[in-house]
Specification:
This protein has 131 residues and is of the alpha/beta class. It has helices at residues 11-20, 34-41, 54-57, 64-74, 89-99, 112-119, 122-125; strands at 24-29, 50-53, 82-86, 102-105, 129-130.
Amino acid sequence: SARHWSVIDGAFDVLDFISSRDIDMAVISNTDHRIHKIISDLNISKYFSSVITSAECGLSKPDATIFHIVYGKYNVKYPHESLHIGNDIETDRQGAINVGCNSIIINKKLNNNSIQNLMNSDNLRNSDNLI
């Protein structure tokens, strides 16, 4: 349930900023079907047009194939034109490297400086897709 999950400080600012740029966003999660309810309970489902879980597709990050599933949904031809934002170096960062996309790893708390850095990031400004 969502009681064990929380939206980190500053995340809504970042999600609103990305949404305002009409960038497609998807979730790739190494979890199961419960993540759909958690995302809904956290009031962030409106930001994501797709949620892919490892349990539903039989793959998990850092396997590049799970990223390719999302790329297929959005007709992404060039992974380097996308950006993956995650919180785990082993699965998120390595998964992005494996597929050839840009990545940003964030910690549990975004402060005003890190929010501004993220919003001004060349990776974000130059990305048409965010996974």
